[in-house]
Design brief:
alpha/beta; single chain; 13 helices; elongated
Length: about 300
């Protein structure tokens, strides 16, 4: 099947490779000419700009947008629209807010253009193992693009989960769960690392837990890889970013009056990781000294 991929970063670039390997015809574009050149080397056809992307596609065009959530998605779609015609399909495979996806779907619908929001999970391992695809939009557009999804995903790794916005909604909650799971592993390994009674080999323990344990998982397999290389994780600063979905999950939980303490606290822990030193912790220490005479540590 012929399609275009706009955005050739870690995810988009590997998805192009998997699709080319699956005998799809890829037209590719990125702001980085070098990124385009690399994909041309794998068998894709390069485009010089977004207009050229559309020119090289034959109707019914399918354009997969794989750029950062927010303004970059809107800008890309805005540049695409003059070159698309009725029946064409735009796919957003990034981590967009589901409300933005609904808005974009309505905007494109007026022009007769289909929109699919595809929550994509799999990271840098997706090239080898496939991507889990959570797909929102019309059933007709989904069915038209299904050969693409079948190539990108492992067996049973893609599904049409609902109308426009549903794909990114499911991916949002997926990433909220991920936040909580990562935090649980982090806290457990930190306790093991801090033990005063035992000098434990964390890589060994991670490997052990991946065989028959109830906490075995792909995430813990990745922990095994990282900790087996370096138990101390030297050279890695404990600064953790978030790409938005965890925040949106917490906001949605609050809107729906659904208690989500684990996901909420895992998000807050990420915020704490970005402080060199917590002023709030200083306030607590100062107050404990004031009301109880407790000792404080000084610089």
């Amino acid at each position: 099947m012929q399609l275009a991929m706009i955005g050739l970063g870690r995810m988009g670039g590997n998805m192009v490779r998997r699709l080319v390997q699956g005998s799809h015809e890829l037209i590719v574009y990125d702001q980085s000419a070098e990124a385009v050149k690399q994909q041309v080397g794998t068998g894709a056809k390069g485009a010089k700009d977004i207009a050229d992307v559309s020119r090289q596609l034959t109707p019914r065009r399918v354009v997969w947008v794989m750029v950062p959530a927010g303004d970059a998605v809107d800008s890309t779609i805005e540049q695409l629209m003059p070159h698309l015609t009725k029946g064409d399909v735009v796919i957003d495979g990034g981590n967009s807010n589901f409300r933005d996806s609904r808005r974009r779907a309505e905007m494109l619908k007026v022009r007769g253009i289909e929109f699919l929001d595809v929550g994509t999970s799999g990271g840098v391992w997706g090239l080898e193992h496939g991507y889990c695809l959570m797909i929102g939009g019309s059933l007709a557009a989904f069915q038209h693009c299904e050969p693409i999804f079948r190539t990108l995903a492992p067996a049973d790794g893609y599904a049409h989960v609902g109308p426009s916005g549903a794909g990114h909604y499911v991916k949002m909650v997926h990433n909220g769960i991920e936040y909580g799971m990562l935090q649980a592993y982090a806290e457990g390994y930190e306790i093991l690392h801090a033990s005063q009674d035992f000098k434990l080999q964390l890589g060994q323990i991670a490997k052990l837990w991946n065989h028959g344990s109830v906490v075995r998982s792909w995430l813990n397999e990745l922990a095994e890889r990282a900790l087996s290389r370096d138990d101390q994780l030297t050279g890695i600063r404990g600064y953790v970013e978030d790409s938005g979905e965890g925040r949106w999950t917490v906001e949605e939980a609050m809107r729906l009056d659904v208690p989500a303490p684990v996901i909420t606290m895992s998000l807050i822990a990420r915020l704490r990781s970005r402080q060199q030193e917590s002023f709030g912790a200083k306030v607590i220490a100062a107050l404990r000294r004031e009301f109880g005479g407790h000792a404080v540590q000084t610089k």
